[in-house]
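Data availability excerpt. The first of two example chains:
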Amino acid sequence: MTDPIVTLDTGRIRGVRDAAVVRYLGVPYAAAPVGERRFLLPQPCPAWDDVRDATRPGASAPQKIKEFPGLDVTPLVGEGWQRGDDYLNVNVWAPAGGGQGLPVMVFIHGGAFVLGGNSAAVQDGSAFARSGVICMSITYRMGVDGFAPIPGVPTNLGLRDQIFALQWVQRNAAAFGGDAANVTVFGESAGAMSIANLVASPLAKGLFRRAIIQSGHGSMVRTPEAGQRLVRKLAQMLRIKPTLDGFRSRGLDETVAVTERISQPNVRVDLRNDEGREPVYGLSKFVPVFRDEVLPQHPLDALKAGEGADVDMLIGTNREEMNLYFVPTGVRPKLSGWLSKLILKKVEPRAVPALKAYGLGQRGQKAGWVFTRCLSDLVFRYPARQFAAAHKGRTHVYELEWRSPQTGGELGACHGIELPFVFNTLASVTGPQGLAGENPPQALADRIHAIWVEYARTGALPWGEYTTADPQVFALEAGKAEREPPMPCAAVLA
């Protein structure tokens, strides 16, 4: 069996083939963002003459991964920093039988804009290739290099990398058998936030036909003023001036180290918006800013004005998103009422009425459980519904309610749990410390994966559109859509 070789606009690459899938791994879509190109806009990748090997995973963006108590998160976020200059790259999975005009799906990974890559086991695209889809997964600059609005540096370089990668997809999809006119972008967590921003960005117009936003929305963006406060704090910690030259004087290892330090909850920096709300609720210091050419206005306002109306959108959440952060760590049962209020007050000006709306102080309601229910809605579920309601185009909403039995049955429908079902990679998260526990339902994975494939192929979904008049939400495990009642936080935040 001969090695598969395809010709891109920059040269030929060699992949690896098995019985059903061809893989091309670590293919650069832009020039290495190091040396003089660090902190610059993404640049075209230099062409090569020989056949380039694409049989092994490529480099990942600089990062540092910490262990997560009680869970093996490696399948979700990867092995950490895989060093190499060409860390702006794409992995491609294609059907071994070939074909032309196939639907293309491009995945953008999550990781709080500071972690992750395109080679994590849970996002292996082989099942999509076996289903007749060209699946791609991209990397992008993160942390200081990707999302710190340093004076003299183009803003939102991480988002600009993603746009540059999608332009690469437009030029090269046909080489793998894909249809550049039928591209679906999909992503989870920070990747989903990125996609929500791309839907709202005039710079991404025409680069994709559909968007699947998994546990994300467009409200986790900062004002330029808040972003500058972050830059000044980083500069102070690095003992440099908050300028391009100052940050250029520090290497990648130093900026990765300061990213980890500033991400600690005890490091104080005021990142609240004009309403006194921290839009990320403390989950990450690094997120996109708006009021630049990538995001001229807040993504929610952009959608209300009609931006992204030409894109079909599927957006959804998991029912118990915040359990991932508070259950395996053992924090939830330790939270008292006053501590819950204290924590939430730091990021949400309506903290007390919000918690009371979810039952804080009522007989039989445990504070930690109230806190995680409230925060799941505030951080993920409610703003995702707001984003769906603002979209002027065709919009559908889902929710995954399947509960992981991990952590004594308490982990539940947590953040990230939909990924192995979407990619049909349950084996990667099955086991004593796996996110999905010992015996997750393969039939559900087959069904969810098939929904994603058909949506990418034709745009069809087995339930009706979401509107403010009829907010239909499809429960993935139950397999039915129901009109969703207002969330308790909706009246508090109105």
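And the second chain:
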Amino acid sequence: MHLVRFLMVAAMLVATLAAPARAATLLRDPDIEHALEQVAAPVLKAAGLGSTRVEILVVDDRTLNAFVVDQSHIFIHSGLLLKMQNAAMLQAVLAHEAAHITNGHLARRPVNLRNARTAAGIGAALAAAAAVASGRGEIAGLGALGAANTAQRMFFVHTRAEENAADQSGMRYLAAAGADPQGMVAVMDIFRGQEVLSASRQDPYARTHPLSRDRYRVVQRLAQGYAGQQREDATANYWFQRAKGKLSAFQRAPKWTLNRAGESGYADIKAMREAAAYHQQADMTRAVAAIDRALAARPGDPYYQELKGQILIESRQFQAAANAYAVAVKQAPKNALILGAYGRALLATGQTQAAIKYLQQSYDRDGRDPRVLRDMAQAYAQLGNTGMASLVTAERYAMQGRLSDAGIHAKRASDLLPRGSTGWRRAQDVLAAAERAAKEK
């Protein structure tokens, strides 16, 4: 799939009882994640979550769903994001999920996802997210978690009481944020009638967020009560169009995108979408020209600069890509995805020591991108540091749920690295997770 090929991804393992494992994928793109952060900001602030770090992450799944598994992340399926027609609808979804966090609904889930900064802990959380994303009540195990209960019993089906409470809280957050409360009504309109369908035919959102006629009527009344409080939010509208525009540009055929590139009404988004379409057609000249138009419209935008870097690196213009990423890093020095991409470009140009520096910074800030670990392993191997190459390979496998393979490489790293060192301790963490998983089989 072109989007997965182009965007940064993090693989997540799904363990099932009666069906083959299904891989779920996080779509990691700095532009889309920043855009969703901007759309969510007023709603999260109204919910009292503005001072905390709540990330909005996109799951590569064309079905319609959104969910939370902890207090720090809201997951939204790519299919649901593309289904949203305006910023108010997306904000309604985010407000509802934020309400599940603030109302304490997660505290009643008998599972601890370990908010660990380790590969094994991250792998556990991503495996749990994959189970939720699938929408399958019979999914069990979550290998990295070692959970005995099914995923459905653990966390991903809300009760009707929880849904009603989240609706009411979410509507208050929308009103306080100045967002249009009719956005929530519009979202519910999408799922009306789902409750009469068999479970196999329902959208995951309807399975995880039970909808009733009474609930729909209550939301309608709440929207009427909050009518007139909404105000125009040009920032949310722009970033919604940018997130949806970029996502659709990589999930749709280039011809489809080029025919609709200007539908957002923003010249820079039009140019960005054209760049994505031309890139998929392997037309580097027109792709670079288009992204340069976007940069001319928004000079200093690190996310457009990052897109230029990705176009160049995938066209094997490694030094030009490194130059573009270097500019993006100066403009957004704390963005883990941009740091990782710069490290990848430096590695491609033979600047191995510098590559490790930026790859490590990326990993320290956000350890969920297995491509960063893959690149670090390559860089350490080139420098002859076999112990660290084995360690980061072990962590990459742990992140992906491949704990047996992770254990093999962690044992090798443990034998090669100085006992008691930071790297040695990281290897012990992966070894312990692999041993627990082996015992639970």
